[in-house]
Design goal:
With 349 residues, this protein is α+β, with helices and mostly antiparallel strands. The protein contains 10 helices and 15 strands. Strands 1, 2, 3, 4, 5, 6, 7 and 8 form an 8-stranded mixed sheet that branches. Strands 9, 10, 11, 12, 13, 14 and 15 form a 7-stranded antiparallel sheet that branches. Strand 14 (318-324) and strand 15 (327-333) form a beta hairpin. The radius of gyration is 23 Å and the shape is globular.
Length: 349
C-alpha cells in the first residue's frame, strides 16, 4: 500500500520556449536542444539541492526545500545559458516558474495546488526569464540582488483565486509585457545602480554613499501610549514577527508615546494585544523606503539633511524618519512612495 506525505515545498517548472513548434519544423534540432536542456537542468539541481520529480516532454518538475534555493537555481540556469556562447548560438530559451506551498507526495510524485500554481506561473515568463509567486517573493525579496517587478494579478487556469506574480529582472530582461497590461511596479527589492546623469550639485554627496534601496508597500504606523503594559505587549508581538520572511517591525520610543511601524497584515494582531484606549493614532496606506549606506556615509556631515531636504523639495511629506547605523527608513504615504524613491535616487545622479 502506497503512503502519502504532506509537506511545504518550493516547486519549480521549466520548459523550452517554442519546443512543440520546433519539433514540427526541425525535429533533429529540437531533440538536440532537449538533450542540452536536460543536462543543464540536472547539473544545476545537484548544486542547489533540487529534487527532480519528473520530466514531461521538454518540461521539468522539480522540488526544493527552500524557496531561495529554487530561485538561486533558476538564476544559475539562466545565467549559464546567457553566458555560454554555444547555448546562445543554439538559441536555447528556457522559462521558469516557481511557487511555494503545501504538496502531497505519493509514489515519488507530488500533487496539490502548489504544483498546479507553479505550472501556471511558468508560461507567464518569456524565454530567459523567471516568474515567481507572491509566496516566493515574500521569502526571497531581501535575499537576492536582482530587481523584482510585479505583474498585475493573474487569473490562472484551474486556480480559484487571483495570484500575484513577480518577474525577476535579469540583466537581459527587456520587458514584462504582454503579460502586464499596466506598467510594472518599481522593483520592491533592487540592487542599487547609480543613474547616469550630470554630476551631483552637492560636493559632499557621492553615489557611493548608498549601496541599496528597498521600497515596500502596505505599511501602517501605530502610535501607542508608552507604558510598561504596552512595552510588554510589544515584546510579545515582536517575538511573533517573522523577520525571515521580510516582515517589518520598527519602534521609536519617546517619553510619552511609542511609534510602531508594521506590515498592514499584522495590524489587527498588534491592535488586539494592547488596550484600545492606549492607541493614540493609526496611519494606514503607508510605504517605506529603506536606504542602506556605505560606511563612508557615517563620516559625511549632512547626509540625512540632504535626503529630507530633497524630499521636501519634491513635495513628499515624511511621516517617520528612522535611523539605525548604516540604514535609514523613510515612512511616507503610499501615494508619495514612487516620488520618494526617485527623489533619493536622483541625489546620486
Amino acid at each position: 500500500m502506497s503512503r502519502t506525505k504532506r509537506r511545504l515545498a518550493a516547486i519549480m517548472f521549466t520548459d523550452i520556449v517554442g519546443y512543440t513548434a520546433l519539433t514540427q519544423k526541425a525535429e533533429r534540432r529540437a531533440l538536440r536542444l532537449l538533450a542540452i536542456h536536460r543536462r543543464l537542468i540536472r547539473s544545476k539541481l545537484a548544486l542547489h539541492q533540487g529534487r527532480e520529480i519528473k520530466t514531461m516532454g521538454d518540461a521539468f518538475l522539480v522540488e526544493f526545500y527552500s524557496a531561495l534555493e529554487a530561485l538561486e537555481c533558476a538564476v544559475d540556469i539562466q545565467n549559464t545559458i546567457h553566458d555560454n556562447p554555444r547555448l546562445r548560438k543554439e538559441r536555447l530559451e528556457v522559462r521558469v516558474g516557481i511557487h511555494v506551498g503545501d504538496v502531497v507526495e505519493k509514489d515519488g510524485d507530488v500533487f496539490g495546488d502548489a504544483v498546479n500554481i507553479a505550472s501556471r506561473i511558468e508560461p507567464l515568463a518569456h524565454g530567459g526569464d523567471i516568474c515567481i509567486s507572491e509566496q516566493v517573493y515574500d521569502q526571497v525579496r531581501n535575499k537576492i540582488s536582482y530587481p523584482l517587478a510585479k505583474l498585475e494579478s493573474q487569473d490562472l487556469k484551474n486556480v480559484a483565486f487571483p495570484v500575484d506574480v513577480y518577474c525577476v529582472l535579469l540583466p537581459w530582461t527587456k520587458q514584462i509585457q504582454p503579460h502586464a497590461q499596466s506598467k510594472p511596479a518599481v522593483s520592491l527589492v533592487r540592487k542599487y545602480t547609480p543613474t547616469p546623469g550630470k554630476p551631483a550639485e552637492r560636493g559632499v554627496w557621492k553615489s557611493r554613499y548608498i549601496s541599496k534601496m528597498v521600497l515596500k508597500n502596505k505599511i501602517v504606523d501605530i502610535v501607542l501610549l508608552n507604558s510598561p503594559e504596552n512595552a510588554s505587549a510589544l515584546a510579545k508581538f515582536g517575538g511573533e514577527v517573522d523577520f525571515s520572511r521580510g516582515e517589518t517591525l520598527h519602534m521609536v520610543s519617546a517619553l510619552e508615546t511609542v511609534s510602531v511601524v508594521v506590515d498592514a497584515k499584522n495590524q489587527s494582531k498588534l491592535v488586539s494585544m494592547v488596550a484600545k484606549k492606549d492607541i493614540l493614532r493609526v496611519m494606514e496606506n503607508l510605504s517605506e523606503v529603506i536606504i542602506s549606506f556605505a560606511e563612508e556615509a557615517l563620516r559625511v556631515p549632512g547626509v540625512a539633511a540632504t535626503i529630507t531636504e530633497a524630499l521636501a523639495a519634491s513635495g513628499v511629506n515624511i511621516i517617520e524618519y528612522i535611523t539605525a547605523t548604516l540604514n535609514a527608513i523613510v515612512i511616507v504615504e503610499s501615494k508619495d512612495a514612487m516620488k520618494c524613491y526617485q527623489s533619493i535616487e536622483a541625489l546620486t545622479a
